[in-house]
Amino acid sequence: MHVNLENAEQVIEAARKKAVELDTQMCIAVVDSGANLKAFMRMDDAWVGSIDIAIKKATTACFFGMATGALGQLSQPGKPLYGIEHSNDGLITFPGGLPIVDEDGVLVGAIGVSGSTVDNDHEVAAAGVAVLGVSELPAHPWRT
Amino acid sequence: MHVNLENAEQVIEAARKKAVELDTQMCIAVVDSGANLKAFMRMDDAWVGSIDIAIKKATTACFFGMATGALGQLSQPGKPLYGIEHSNDGLITFPGGLPIVDEDGVLVGAIGVSGSTVDNDHEVAAAGVAVLGVSELPAHPWRT
Amino acid sequence: MHVNLENAEQVIEAARKKAVELDTQMCIAVVDSGANLKAFMRMDDAWVGSIDIAIKKATTACFFGMATGALGQLSQPGKPLYGIEHSNDGLITFPGGLPIVDEDGVLVGAIGVSGSTVDNDHEVAAAGVAVLGVSELPAHPWRT
Amino acid sequence: MHVNLENAEQVIEAARKKAVELDTQMCIAVVDSGANLKAFMRMDDAWVGSIDIAIKKATTACFFGMATGALGQLSQPGKPLYGIEHSNDGLITFPGGLPIVDEDGVLVGAIGVSGSTVDNDHEVAAAGVAVLGVSELPAHPWRT
Q1: B100 is in which domain, residue-wise?
Q2: Which of A74, C130, D27, D59 lies at 20 to 30 Å from D2 by C-alpha?
């Protein structure tokens, strides 16, 4: 499971701080390495529709150990993973979801952010990840 | 919750009048600011498949505080929100859904219309909104 | 499809009048003979959770051509239809849903009401049905 | 929408404190008055299966403006609301979900707690509610 509650709260707090800096209103979700929700917050005035998107960005990033935006490049029409969004009760494959990888290169969870442009969403997610580690996994095998 | 039943009935009545003017058969849905259904009607000979589309257009417009067609321009292949329709148990991102914003700039609900061309759907939705307010939200923060 | 919009609005109006008489706040749904939503209204201060229940009562009554409460007697533990609620994306099998049967004994639609005690729900539904016909189907075959 | 993020965090913090006191590991969810998720946390070692239960307890309490346990007494076999759990994409009707009602008697949101005995779940939920108000709604009409 890896990400504990203290970790998750640090991630969310860092992400929120960045969201405020950018003058945005975000939904922020953190899942553990099993892709199960650990913590979530919806800032005031954030879109209601972003609740589910933030959570799905986090689960998507965890499911495949990669940034949601990277997956989205593979799921465009004509690309190898076209339509992958139909799996797993719905994926979100545009930026804003990032894996959280610890110093040993182990995937310990993921963060998903939704509420502004995808660039802002990504930047807020990255600020959250930076508290605990990085978003890039080493070459396989990488999962415990 | 915002939109009360009297409001919702006025919105639907104005939308229906426009639908008749355009010689169309529409499904018309109104949701409150929590995206929960307040009132719905299916005109005779409207497509059965439009029931769910009208309701999803209304919830989509409410979830993101914007016209469904505006969201759809961002969700095309190669665009930033490609695949967003997979969230929230299904979004509809072509025209026909509009937020309802009151004179104080507060999102009080949304309307969704389906049953004809998307231009007609949009026109009927706009006629409904006009009874209560406008569809454009002011800059953030805009939600209670 | 049978129930036209004029019919459905008469049914809902009669049901609403009864709901007011009983000092209750109801969700009222009417479906056609294909169990597809024709009209819906949520009275102010009605439970949000009653939206789905009212619609499911209407579809349940239509699916089986009988009062939801009658079906519920058969779906209790140890009874022949125990667990039938798991079908059709969820049935509601307590009172408040009634078929609408015309003077020729044909099922033309159904009404579902939720928002108060099941006795009140049933009474409001019955007031709606009375505008168009009865709730009892003749012996099979009864469907067009 | 009513419950803002500051409110929700106070509710969760009070609930967590009570959970620690009781030596339990809980999932705690807060929804706004539209039954949309506002904040969530899963304590370390809480059951993964409690994530969804905590959220559904919160939405259930909000949908009907009553304690989930009160609804559960009405949904037992042979009781008036038997099978109501099949509505609204799944309700949870045992204790641990409570409405949050402000000093004006308005439903402003709800809390759901899962992770221990239902008595403990309820006690933790009640500790959360106490920060903002009460769980008992006045007689109708009670919703904005």
Answers
A1: 5-130
A2: D27
CB-CB under 8 Å, A42 with D38: yes
Find chain C residues with C-beta within 8 A of D65's C-beta: 47
Query: In chain D, whose CA is at the least distance from the CA of C72?
Result: D82
Provide, as residue numbers in chain B, all residues whose Cβ is less than 8 Å from the Cβ of C59.
Answer: none
Of A9, A38, A51, the CB nearest to D37: A51
- Give me B62's structure tokens: 């409410």
Find the closest chain A residue to B91 by CA distance: A49
Instruction: Provide the CATH number for the domain around residue D13.
Output: 3.30.450.150
Q: With a cut of 50, which residues of chain B have pLDDT below it?
A: 144
Residues 6 or more apart whose CB falls under 8 angstroms from that of B115 comprise: B19, B24, B25, B26, B27, B43, B46, B47, B50, B54, B121
Interchain CB distance below 8 Å, B144 and D33: no
| A42: in domain | yes
Model pLDDT for residues A38-93, shown as the tens digit of each residue: 999 999 999 999 999 999 999 999 999 999 999 999 999 999 999 999 999 999 99
For B104, half-sphere exposure in the C-beta direction (CA atoms, 13 angstrom radius) is 7
Residues of chain C found within 8 Å of residue B39, distances taken between Cβ atoms? 40-42
Could you tell me if residue A135 is inside a domain?
Answer: no
Query: Which residue type occupies B15?
Result: A
With an 8 Å Cβ cutoff, the interface of chain C facing chain B consists of 4-5, 8-9, 34, 36-44, 48, 51
Give the separation between CA C97 and CA C16, rounded to whole angstroms. Answer: 15
Q: Is B34's CB within 8 Å of D143's CB?
A: no
Strand runs (DSSP E) across chain B, as ranges? Answer: 27-32, 37-42, 97-101, 107-114
pLDDT tens-digit profile, chain D (144 residues): 689 999 999 999 999 999 999 999 999 999 999 999 999 999 999 999 999 999 999 999 999 999 999 999 999 999 999 999 999 999 999 999 999 999 888 999 999 999 999 999 999 999 999 999 988 887 755 554
Q: Partners of A113 in the beta sheet?
A: A28
Q: Is residue B24, in this structure, part of any structural domain at all?
A: yes
Per residue in C75-112, pLDDT (tens digit) is: 999 999 999 999 999 999 999 999 999 988 999 999 99
Q: How many structural domains comprise chain C?
A: 1
Q: Which residue of B has its CA nearest to C28?
A: B39
CA–chain centroid gap for B15, Å, is 11
- B124 within a domain of the structure (yes/no): yes
Residues in chain A with CB shorter than 8 Å from the CB of D4 are 44
ipTM: 0.93
